Amino acid sequence: MKKILFMVSLVIFMSSCISNKRITYLQNLPENTPIDLNEFIPYAEVDYEYILQPFDIVNIQFASSDEELTQAFSFQNSQGSGGMRSGGGGGQGSDPLYFTGYSIDKDGQVEVPMLGKIRIAGLTEDAAKKIVEIKINEFFKEDVYVKLGIAGIRYTTLGEFNSVGVQIIYKNRATIFDALANSGETTLLGKKNKLFVVRQYDGGTKLHQINLNDRALLASSFYFIQPNDILYMEPMKIRQIGTADNLTASLALFAGLLASTLLIINLVTNGTN
């Protein structure tokens, strides 16, 4: 009976273990060319610039030799906003530029004081900036400089992340690992080899899949996230037994019940002999 109990406990223990290969980032996978430590890895060439979309929030600032004149073209609450904040974080979609920035409406336009509505959706940040500069310089003899950009990189995490919801990184560029760290990392039970990325393009979206276990990701076009990306990580099948927090407790309870049942069977069997 002791042997049976030992074998059953061993099977439970082995089935509950998660291989390090499934949870370790940036491995040299057998099917890829190995990448050594300290080896230089050039970024992938990506012919992609973010296209402004309806409901984006942009920060627009004006600068000239006469600040009093340019103030008439700004909302009062946008003054002194300081543009992009540095640093990360902001979970659950908290965004100080929600009130101080300019929101692109459903028709792709932003409304700027004195200038009226200007269509910038469907354009890159640089192209939108030039259009606004042309509009405002119609009022001045001296050139007015325009600074236009989105309010950080907003993305969404779903599935096996320790923090799910809308996240914001206040940087102009962020890697997939910046996004993971900003979201509290993935849970132990997330399928790191199957991270789905829903990415928006001009006129639609595409669904991509990346492998966080693969070191070749560093040279991939998906090493950097884009604004409005949706990151979804599937759970492992072992997730059905319990979460990463209570899996050990669940297994301990199951093992205790099994041991009690086997003990009762052993006592009954010995009693009848």
Task: Please provide a written account of the structure.
This protein is of the alpha+beta class and 273 residues long. It has helices at 2-16, 20-23, 67-71, 97-100, 125-136, 176-182, 247-272, and strands at 57-63, 102-103, 109-112, 116-119, 145-150, 153-159, 165-169, 190-201, 204-210, 230-235. The chain folds into three domains: 20-47 and 153-240, Outer membrane lipoprotein wza domain like (Outer membrane lipoprotein wza fold like, Roll); 57-150, 2-Layer Sandwich (wza like fold); 249-273. The protein has seven helices and ten strands. The protein has a five-stranded mixed β-sheet, with helices on one face. Strands 2-1-5 form a three-stranded antiparallel β-sheet. It has a two-stranded antiparallel sheet with strand order 3-4. A hairpin with a 5-residue loop joins β6 (153-159) and β7 (165-169). The longest helix is centred in the last third of the chain and has 26 residues, at 247-272. The radius of gyration is 27 Å and the shape is elongated. Mean pLDDT is 79; it is low at 77-93.
